[in-house]
C-alpha cells in the first residue's frame, strides 16, 4: 500500500482505474459548432445587457454571442479576451449561475438563461485550437515590472503590461504557474492540462519571464524588488489556512482541503491517491464542495459537508451544492466542530448544533459525532507573511508603498473568484502603465 504524505495509513485505489477515469472526465463537455449556434440564437442581444454589468470583467456578452451566432467564433474569442485574458478557464470555473447567467433576461422570464459560460468556452477553445493570439506587444518602453504570484491576477496583470510594451518578470513560489487554476480547483472542471495550456498560450505574447520556485520573504524581498524594478504587483493569494480551533485537530487524517485538492491536481495516477472511507469536510464554500465531490469520485463511501450556519449562508452556489448532493455528498448545516477524537489518527468528529442569532453564532449544548477516517478543513484562507510596508485589514491587503499594487484574493474588495482576480490584475496593469508613462 502506498500513502500520500498528507494522509498516512489511508488506502488508495478504492475504485478501479477505468471508473476513476470516467469520474474525473470533463463534467460539462464542450458545445460543438451546431450546439453553439443553437444556444447563441436564444440571446436577445439586449442593448442595456444586465449580463455585462454582472460580469466582473465586463465582457461584451451580447456581442460575442452574436459573433458566435453569425459563425465567427474567433472574433467572439477576441471580444472575450479583450476584457478577460483567462476567458477559457473562467468559462470552466466561473460561477456563471450567480453572475452573468443569473442576470440574463431569459433567466428572469423563463428560468433558463442563455448558456453564457458554455458559449464562452466554445469561442475561446475554438480560437486557441486554431493558434489565434490576437494581441501584439507595443514598442518597448524600457520599463521593467515585477509580478509576485503567477495566479490569475498576476498573469492578467503581466499580459496587459506586456501588451503595453513593458518587460515583466513573474516570481512564483510553486513549481508551475497558474495559481488556483492549476492547484486549487476540481480536476473535472479543467481536464487535459488546460490550465497549463492556457498559461503557455498567454505567454506567447512575449515579454514575460516566469521564475518558479521563488518565494517572497525567502528568496526575494519587496524592498529588493522596488529597488530593481520600476513597479511591483502583488498577486500572492492567500497562503494561510484557518484552523478549526478544536482539540485533536492535529491528529493524523485531518488535513487542509486546499492541500488535498492541490495534491490531487498534480497526481498523474489517481488510483494511487489515498481517500478515506468516511470523509468529513468542514466548511461551506467552493473548496469544501470540490474536496467533498472529489473524495466521492475517488471512492469514499460516506462524504459529509458540515457547515456552521444555515444552508442559505453557504458561499458555494446553489448549483455547486446540488452538484455535490447529486454525487452522493451529504450536507449538514448549523453545526460546528468542537473536538476531533481518535488515537493518533482521527476516528470521529464531534459537533455542536449552532444558533445564528442577532448576537452572532452560538453553540448549543446539544452535540453529535460523525465517524471519520479523513477530515478536510475548508473554513477559509488567510494572508501569510506580509512583506514590510504592506498593511492588512480584515485579512486582506489594505495599504501599499509607492509604485506597488496588489490584486486577486490577497487584496481588499471583490469576491475570491478567478474572474475577479483577472479583473483586478488587468486594472492594476492599466494603473501601472499610466504611472510609468506619466509625463
Fold and architecture overview:
This protein is α/β, with parallel strands linked by helices. It folds into three domains: 33-129, Orthogonal Bundle (Fumarate Reductase Iron-sulfur Protein, Chain B, domain 2), CATH 1.10.1060.10; 144-239 and 383-436, 3-Layer(bba) Sandwich (FAD/NAD(P)-binding domain); 241-377, FAD/NAD(P)-binding domain (3-Layer(bba) Sandwich), CATH 3.50.50.60. It is 35% helix and 20% strand. The protein has 17 helices and 17 strands. The protein has helices spanning 17-23, 33-40, 50-54, 61-69, 73-83, 87-93, 100-103, 105-110, 116-129, 152-163, 180-183, 194-203, 222-228, 257-266, 286-298, 318-326, 418-436; strands at 144-148, 167-172, 208-212, 231-234, 240-241, 254-256, 278-282, 302-306, 329-332, 335-342, 346-357, 360-371, 374-377, 381-382, 391-393, 396-399, 404-406. The strands form five sheets. It has a five-stranded parallel beta sheet with strand order 3-2-1-4-17, with helices on both faces. A five-stranded parallel beta sheet has the order 6-13-7-8-9. Strands 10-11-12 form a three-stranded antiparallel beta sheet, with no helix packed on it. Helix 2 (33-40) crosses helix 9 (116-129) and helix 6 (87-93) runs antiparallel to helix 9. The longest helix is centred in the C-terminal third of the chain and has 19 residues, at 418-436. The chain is globular, with a radius of gyration of 22 Å. The relative contact order is 0.15. The model has no long low-confidence stretch (mean pLDDT 95).
Amino acid at each position: 500500500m502506498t500513502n500520500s504524505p498528507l494522509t498516512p495509513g489511508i488506502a488508495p485505489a478504492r475504485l478501479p482505474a477505468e471508473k476513476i477515469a470516467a469520474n474525473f472526465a470533463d463534467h460539462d463537455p464542450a458545445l460543438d459548432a451546431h450546439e453553439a449556434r443553437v444556444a447563441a440564437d436564444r440571446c436577445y442581444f439586449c442593448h442595456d445587457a444586465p449580463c455585462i454589468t454582472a460580469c466582473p470583467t465586463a465582457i461584451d456578452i451580447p456581442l460575442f454571442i452574436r459573433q458566435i451566432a453569425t459563425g465567427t467564433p474567433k472574433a467572439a474569442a477576441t471580444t472575450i479576451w479583450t476584457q478577460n485574458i483567462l476567458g477559457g478557464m473562467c468559462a470552466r470555473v466561473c460561477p456563471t449561475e450567480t453572475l452573468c447567467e443569473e442576470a440574463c433576461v431569459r433567466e428572469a422570464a423563463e428560468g433558463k438563461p442563455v448558456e453564457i459560460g458554455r458559449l464562452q468556452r466554445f469561442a475561446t477553445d475554438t480560437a486557441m485550437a486554431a493558434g489565434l493570439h490576437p494581441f501584439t506587444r507595443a514598442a518597448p518602453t524600457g520599463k521593467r515590472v515585477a509580478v509576485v504570484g503567477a495566479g490569475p491576477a498576476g498573469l492578467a496583470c503581466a499580459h496587459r503590461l506586456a501588451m503595453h510594451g513593458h518587460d515583466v518578470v513573474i516570481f512564483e513560489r510553486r513549481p508551475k504557474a497558474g495559481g488556483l487554476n492549476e492547484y486549487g480547483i476540481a480536476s473535472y472542471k479543467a481536464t487535459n492540462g488546460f490550465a497549463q495550456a492556457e498559461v503557455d498560450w498567454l505567454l506567447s505574447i512575449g515579454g514575460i519571464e516566469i521564475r518558479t520556485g521563488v518565494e517572497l520573504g525567502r528568496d526575494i524581498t519587496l524592498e529588493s524588488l522596488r529597488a530593481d524594478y520600476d513597479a511591483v504587483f502583488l498577486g500572492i493569494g492567500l497562503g494561510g489556512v484557518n484552523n478549526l480551533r478544536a482539540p485533536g485537530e492535529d491528529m493524523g487524517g485531518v488535513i487542509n482541503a486546499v492541500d488535498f485538492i492541490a495534491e490531487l491536481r498534480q497526481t498523474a495516477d489517481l488510483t494511487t491517491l489515498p481517500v478515506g472511507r468516511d470523509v468529513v469536510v468542514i466548511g461551506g464554500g467552493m473548496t469544501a464542495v470540490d474536496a467533498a465531490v472529489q473524495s466521492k469520485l475517488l471512492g469514499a463511501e460516506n462524504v459529509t459537508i458540515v457547515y456552521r450556519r444555515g444552508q442559505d449562508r453557504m458561499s458555494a452556489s446553489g448549483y455547486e451544492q446540488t452538484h455535490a448532493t447529486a454525487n452522493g455528498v451529504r450536507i449538514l448545516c448549523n453545526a460546528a466542530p468542537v473536538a476531533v477524537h481518535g488515537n493518533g489518527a482521527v476516528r470521529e468528529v464531534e459537533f455542536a448544533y449552532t444558533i445564528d442569532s442577532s448576537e452572532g453564532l452560538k453553540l448549543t449544548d446539544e452535540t453529535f459525532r460523525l465517524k471519520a477516517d479523513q477530515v478536510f478543513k475548508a473554513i477559509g484562507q488567510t494572508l501569510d507573511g506580509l512583506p514590510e510596508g504592506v498593511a492588512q485589514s480584515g485579512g486582506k491587503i489594505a495599504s501599499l508603498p509607492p509604485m506597488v499594487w496588489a490584486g486577486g484574493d490577497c487584496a481588499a474588495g471583490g469576491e475570491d473568484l478567478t474572474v475577479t482576480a483577472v479583473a483586478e490584475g488587468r486594472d492594476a496593469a492599466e494603473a501601472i502603465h499610466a504611472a510609468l508613462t506619466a509625463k
